[in-house]
């Protein structure tokens, strides 16, 4: 038969299986260490994400507050601008009314002024009479004055802001 006893073969086989088991345990232990290290890394990442989301929430709340304040300020300025626009429109309307009255008075005064003036030419030492003021000149002066007023108000509003 064989020279090796059956007991020795079985014990050798058990020893080999034991060595394979120990090797597998070492490999498994290394994998577990890496998994634990990855778990710690994942926990750190999750912690950073939570901190970043809290910061973002605070920033969003700040932006909402700023947007609300800007909306209120803009609304107030818009109401004030509308009020000033109405006032200017009213004043321009009143100015046009006054201008029309002045034009009517000037037109009514022309025949009287022409009748009162003698037909003779002015003396050489006397200055020439001033040119009559036309309604279109008065209107253009009023428009220019209102444009300048608007320009000054805009500049004052910009300086105030």
TrEMBL record:
DUF6468 domain sequence ranges: 35-109
Task: Give me the segments passing through the membrane.
Answer: 6-27
Fetch the InterPro entries from UniProt.
Answer: DUF6468 (IPR045531)
Coiled-coil positions are 25-52
For this UniProt record, give its keywords in alphabetical order, as a comma-separated list: Coiled coil, Membrane, Transmembrane, Transmembrane helix
Pfam families per the UniProt record, alphabetical: DUF6468
Instruction: Output the superkingdom of the source species.
Output: Bacteria
Q: What is this protein called?
A: Chemotaxis protein
Q: What species was this sequence derived from?
A: Stappia taiwanensis
